[in-house]
Amino acid sequence: MAKATKKLQKHGARPDGAAAAQSPVPAELLFNRELSWIEFNRRVLEEALDESHPLLERLKFLAIFSTNLDEFFMIRVSGLKEELEEEVVELSPDGMTPAEQLKEISARLRPVVETQMRCLKEEILPQLKHHGVRIVSYKDLDKHEKQAANAYFMEKVFPILTPQAVDPGHPFPYVSNLSLNLGLMVEPGTGEQGTGVPPAPKGGKRFARIKLPPVVPRLVPVDESGTKFTFLGSIIAANADALFPEMRHGKSHLFRVTRDADIEIREDEAGDLLRTVQQTLRRRRFGSAVRLEVSTSMPAKMVEYLTTSLGLTPEGLRRGRPLQHPRPDAALPARPAGTERQAAPVDYPRAAAASGHGLRRDQAEGRPAPPPLHVLHGGHGLHRRGRG
Known about the structure:
Blueprint lengths: L1 H10 L7 H4 L10 H17 L5 H31 L12 H33 L3 E3 L6 H15 L6 E2 L14 E9 L17 E6 L7 E3 L6 E4 H7 L1 H4 L3 E3 L3 E7 L13 H12 L4 E6 L5 H10 L7 E3 L8 H4 L17 H5 L7 H4 L8 H4 L12
Parallel strand pairs: 1-6, 9-10
Antiparallel strand pairs: 2-4, 3-4, 3-7, 3-8, 5-6, 8-9
């Protein structure tokens, strides 16, 4: 309760019923802090929708929008969820309860995220294809491209993967914040999948999780020109047999977890501030889950299992957001012509009109130059004299 109260004080909340006496401005004239942030991020998305921007600039704005949204859930939404769990009754300055704010956040974010997905799938990716950059699924690759992708998997990815299965002796694994994962069901069996292996006994199916390694690019080039890519997640899913030998497995589905990353440090109570910050940052990794993002293809039973295992409610579920698309700087090593803004040097207008180049601004405008530094400082302390 005390921690939630500290967050309330930091976020500017006030006790219920105290607004009229303490606030000089009526609540209905104030903007909600969290909803105002959503409107700010909507402006970022509008930059991505602006067709006057170069293509890769628009893709970068989509990436910025997603990063902002992650931070919003890690800090703002996590604080509201904690207030709700602690049954805090304080209102925000505009007169909304934590539950009302969470409900309105969900309602406003849904159409914004749908707009982001539509922009990516219907505008950005088709235009990238027009410029010669193709991003396709593994199943759409030809024979030689699949061989190249499989070789990349065995050489670069397979050695650093650690699949984790859940059973009575191995509880649900810890899923790190913002990590991208594959979830699938596995069961005992022998031989290759689809060869008529008898079904496992009842209860033999287990959930397994594969974490996509963050040190490997999310988009993997599969042709010699380096302009055709496929998703790392689909390559791993296609090679699941190598990860689960002599076992049968179902289809793989992407999911991603966002955790509470809000920290509270009282400097006046910290004996060693540096050590306190280090310990707090270590604990930050294990914050409670606040959001679960899953692919549209994930079965309802798996979604329910993940939601329950992470201690989330249905309100914390987000389905369908593009999960595999990385930051654009890491996605496209080769920049197609016409997809980025070409920066040109610009001279200061008055300096450009002067007789020469390289003039200081005050010289170009005819103003007196500033006095030398040693005059300003009285000639003291400008040069350290040698010793000895």
